[in-house]
Amino acid sequence: MQSNGFSDNIPDSIGSCSMLSDLNMAQNSLSGEIPHTLGSLPTLNALNLSDNKLSGRIPESLSFLRLSLLDLSNNRLSGRVPLSLSSYNGSFNGNPGLCSMTIKSFNRCMDSPGSHRDTRIFVLCIVFGSLILIASLLFFLYLKKTEKKERRTLRHESWSIKSFRRMSFTEDDIIDSIKEENLIGRGGCGDVYRVVLGDGKELAVKHIRSSNSDDKKNFSSAMPILNEKEGRSKEFETEVQTLSSIRHLNVVKLYCSITSDDSSLLVYEYLPNGSLWDKLHLCKKSNLGWETRYDVALGAAKGLEYLHHGYERPVIHRDVKSSNILLDEFFKPRIADFGLAKILQANNGGLDSTHVVAGTYGYIAPEYGYSSKVNEKCDVYSFGVVLMELVTGKKPIEAEFGESKDIVNWVSNNLKSKESVMEIVDKKIGEMYREDAIKMLRVAILCTARLPGNRPTMRSVVQMIEDAEPCRLMGIVISKESDVKVKEIS
């Protein structure tokens, strides 16, 4: 359609030619405006309307086209060249009424009064937005500074640190680490946090909760966690008083206590291999051979023996269980969690029992069911359950034991013959150690005698474990009166 003498306007209906790919109407006498409907032609590849008498603005709709050729030169077009079409800068020559902010050959476009007003509004919005942002930032910095000042004042005036060993850290190092991301466990008497010091040393910090305080599940910083108005409870003071003088290889080390009117913290050594429960009942069970299990049993027994007999006044742990026996990097055991420990007072040359019931289901001695008076023999019973875990690999409570049955009942029901006894030994214990495991089972059964008077002391338990050498298999019979009798199986 080039050079055909066409005149008049280009019809808007040209936008309905959806298959049009090349439109060349150059060198005619076309007038009027370029129809905006040209922008709706999806396949249009080339548009040449040069050398006509077209007027008006260049339609913004042409920006939607993917043109390999655009030529609108030598017309009477006016107004702004759409920014998206500026790359076709040679396509608009011969249109003195056009202006552009990017094509240097055209005059720069002059803003209209309305656009000036829009620009002023835009600038004002930027200014006010910046002022609000700066004010918010200054307010935030003020709050942080105030909080930091209050925290510093609180630390210097309210916190009291009592060290029991040589330390390479301050109370600030500990307090700053009491936050959600460092939480590694929850216990009956407090939450435990893992703290890594600047020199790489790891510590375990127990935040003592009062018995009537609610569990705190959502934390954002150290201060909300510590600010619970729990105070220095009698339970906490008892624990600190007891632990501060305990020194034994198989009892977890207490470095210091940090107290204020609001919180109580105990700082222990951190043991990287977790608890005996983790190693026995979770994914790393296969790592525990019998030799390691034996060492754990003997070490834990010595730790409890020290608490019962080596300390100046007997200490009842009250919650002996495999999750409270922690393992160091060499799998050496430490007795942990003395949140419920109580000191038995001497009374006329004897020992007076306490009246506070505590413990974990599956480990609790049967006398808890009819009496609140407990003594060291409750710890002996719980330790016997731990020994059964070591020998059988079972948890204290398993569905296979039956309803209302625990590991003590299950072991007792499988002592009818040598074969049945061998059957309950953990299959992961090597054949050469199975009889040694049976001898350990004998100790466990003595410890879990129903009557407290029939249970050995922890001093006797240590001796029996030390004497656990390969020997002929012994049968174990528990009478209805709960007395323990041993006879050789023929």
From TrEMBL:
Top-level EC class: transferase
Main location: membrane
GO terms, molecular function: ATP binding; peptide receptor activity; protein serine/threonine kinase activity; receptor serine/threonine kinase binding
Coiled-coil ranges from the UniProt annotation: none
An individual GO BP term: post-embryonic development
Gene3D superfamilies in the cross-refs: Phosphorylase Kinase, domain 1, Ribonuclease Inhibitor, Transferase(Phosphotransferase) domain 1
UniProt keyword annotation of Transport present: no
TM segment ranges: 121-143
UniProt membrane topology term: Single-pass type I membrane protein
Annotated compartments: Membrane
Signal peptide: none
Keyword set includes Signal: yes
Keywords: ATP-binding, Glycoprotein, Kinase, Leucine-rich repeat, Membrane, Nucleotide-binding, Receptor, Repeat, Serine/threonine-protein kinase, Signal, Transferase, Transmembrane, Transmembrane helix
Enzyme Commission code(s) on record: 2.7.11.1
Catalytic activity: L-seryl-[protein] + ATP = O-phospho-L-seryl-[protein] + ADP + H(+); L-threonyl-[protein] + ATP = O-phospho-L-threonyl-[protein] + ADP + H(+)
Protein kinase domain segment(s): 178-472
GO cellular component: membrane
Homology family: Belongs to the RLP family.
Identification of the protein by name: non-specific serine/threonine protein kinase
